[in-house]
Design goal:
Length: 593
């Protein structure tokens, strides 16, 4: 496998040339205190060292060895503990955390790049710190002052990690039917009893304590999602002097044997009257958990991208070396018996698909991260717009980037021919690791429904209108000869997205099944259009900087042309499919399948 190299230049291009993150930080006083361009560049460079030198080298061994289970204890793969300690010593768990409790308060637009680097290096490793970061976010937003003082500081310090305990054997997508019970105790705590499955990082040997965020219901709670509460359940109790006390009644019953992310512990967690503490208000637990879940959803999108970036780097190096066949126009490699496979149109197609979709996904994830920063740190109209766009685009980030991530890891495997199927080369690991990203944290089918049913139909198109207005304003500002090759197809794509949205809004008023039938195609139409918007932005900067003679901008421009010519047209067949209606799905009886 090629050594992983963090695409630092592209990240810096996006942050400072395309999205002008430094100007945004200056505008937002809470961020201006913590970050400027020099700090951000230094953070990216230091983080790249950890990803390239500490985490990427242990990835393949982790895939081969996996985690082991012994009487309730879980041992992580060789090298994981040392790499985790180095990560903690570098202060990385605090990166996006609340400064009041020891966090560094860095914006999402920066931490999104950090997450991508870690995921390209190894998704399994990354799951341990990113779940902790997501849990910390929920605790910081909804927890009592006492809980925050006691737990948040140690989570940011990297002493303690966290897990997210939602899923039960009979309750996955439908959390309203969970059975885990919470019984109020005289001391104000709750006794938690139930069994959770598929819990990432539920048990392991990386940290001395694990903070579980658990969804449960009080005996008299309303039925469905409105009766769910959120509890913090520590593996070890914490004494008043902040030392660790007795073990709580929570244990790992077993771990799963999986298709991928082998070095991530996926645990059955049993709560047998474990002591838990309420986070937020009773029966409002799902909303509190959504603070974490929305963070993780964007993070899972970035996992898909991370795996695809690694796969592309490997495939490119391999394609340059592999000699097979001759160029259609005659042998180019004079004196050799064959050309490198880079001469073949189909190999170039595969590599350019990966390059254009990866760079487009990175740009779009950076744009979405920026909206989250406006939502968190902005004020007034700017904040409201950030909130609207972040809400609209969270399901898009999760599903679109992971569908493309999986497609790209398979493409990267294909570039290797038979060697892609052989474990030694590492491409099969990336396919396996990327596959789960389409499933967990709400399947991509659920994300598509969230986008079309809740965000688009649910807001009567208002959230989508915020994004359409932004794209139209950009189109109007960039009506010049140089940009026409991008602005024209972008305009058509935006017009078609508006038309499709209106069409589905209208159709759904007659038959609600139209939403579920169209949701997946709709999400992808939206995704390719949004990606065209950020590719146009990148092309505009590349055009302006072309005169510098730097190859980076030439490559960007040519990749933009590839995106608009070969990939954006995918939306045309998706639109036809989205409009085909629900009858063909529901007119066939179940026993005729
Ligand atoms: C490796 C791994 C790690 C995980 N980590 C965690 C974790 O840390 N914490 C945690 O709580 N959970 C975790 N999960 C659970 C994961 O989030 C769920 O598996 C996932 O949300 C889907 O739930 P399910 O498996 O019960 O599938 P189901 O809900 O049974 O879904 C089955 C199929 O039906 C579709 N479907 C279901 N309902 C609808 C609907 N309303 N509309 C359209 N389609 C629908 C789904 O899209 C899917 O295709 C993990 C799972 C795995 C495999």
């Amino acid at each position: 496998m090629a050594d992983y190299r963090v695409p630092l230049k592209d990240m810096s291009f996006l942050l400072f040339d395309v999205f002008k993150a430094d100007a945004m930080w200056q505008q937002l006083p809470k961020l201006a205190e913590n970050v400027d361009k020099d700090t951000a560049e230094a953070i990216l460079q230091e983080c790249a060292k950890i990803a390239e030198q500490e985490i990427a080298p242990i990835s393949q061994q982790g895939h081969e060895t996996g985690v082991s289970f012994n009487h309730g204890d879980v041992t992580t793969a060789p090298g994981f503990k040392d790499a985790f300690n180095t990560y903690v010593e570098g202060g990385w768990p605090a990166l996006g955390g609340d400064p009041q409790y020891g966090g560094m308060g860095m914006p999402k637009i920066l931490t999104a790049q950090h997450e991508e680097m870690l995921c390209s290096a190894d998704i399994s490793f990354t799951l341990y710190p990113v779940l902790t970061a997501g849990a910390a976010l929920s605790l910081a937003k909804h927890g009592s002052e006492e809980l925050k003082q006691r737990y948040l500081t140690r989570m940011y310090a990297g002493d303690w990690s966290a897990s997210m305990c939602l899923t039960e054997s009979h309750a996955g997508s439908d959390l309203g039917i969970i059975r885990t019970k919470a019984i109020p105790q005289d001391d104000g705590s709750y006794s938690i009893t139930g069994s959770k499955i598929f819990i990432t990082g539920g048990e392991h040997d990386l940290t001395e304590n694990i903070v579980h965020l658990v969804l449960a219901k009080l005996p008299d709670a309303p039925a469905g999602p409105r009766g769910i509460s959120l509890f913090l359940v520590p593996k070890f109790h914490v004494n008043d002097d902040e030392t660790l006390g007795e073990r709580n009644n929570v244990s790992c019953g077993s771990i799963e044997h999986k298709m991928g992310i082998n070095a991530s512990a996926t645990c059955v967690m049993n709560f047998d009257g474990a002591k838990g503490y309420l986070i937020g208000e009773l029966n409002k637990g799902l909303a509190c958990m959504f603070t974490m879940m929305n963070f993780e959803r964007i993070g899972v999108g970035i996992q898909g991208l991370g795996a695809a970036v690694r796969s592309y780097q490997n495939a490119l190096e391999y394609a340059k070396d592999r000699l097979q066949g001759k160029a259609a126009t005659g042998l180019k490699n004079i004196g050799k018996e064959a050309d490198s496979i880079m001469v073949h149109g189909d190999v170039r197609r595969m590599l350019l698909n990966m390059k254009a979709l990866n760079e487009g996904s990175r740009a779009l994830s950076t744009y979405i991260a920026m909206q989250l920063d406006y939502a968190t740190y902005g004020e007034g109209e700017q904040q409201a717009k950030g909130e609207a766009l972040a809400a609209l685009m969270t399901p898009l980030a999760k599903a679109f980037f992971t569908d493309l991530g999986f497609e790209n890891t398979v493409t990267g495997q294909q570039v290797f021919g038979g060697h892609g199927f052989i474990r030694e080369w590492g491409q099969e690991q990336l396919v396996r690791d990327a596959r789960i990203t389409q499933i967990y944290e709400g399947t991509n089918g659920i994300q598509a429904m969230d986008l079309l049913a809740r965000k688009v139909v649910g807001s009567k198109g208002q959230l989508m209108q915020v994004f359409i207005d932004e794209m139209r304003a950009y189109i109007n500002e960039n009506q010049n000869d140089n940009m026409q090759e991008f602005i024209e197809p972008l305009t058509t794509a935006v017009d078609d997205l508006v038309e499709l949205s209106d069409y589905l809004l209208e159709k759904s008023t007659h038959n609600v099944n139209e939403i579920g039938a169209a949701a997946n195609d709709y999400l992808h139409v939206f995704g390719y259009t949004a990606m065209a918007f950020v590719w146009a932005k990148m092309a505009a900067v590349a055009l302006a900087k072309q005169a510098t003679g730097d190859d980076f901008y030439e490559s960007k421009l040519k990749t933009a042309r590839y995106y608009f010519t070969r990939l954006l047209p995918r939306r045309i067949s998706l639109i036809a499919s989205a409009k085909s209606g629900c009858d063909v799905l529901f007119d066939i009886d179940d026993d005729l399948f």
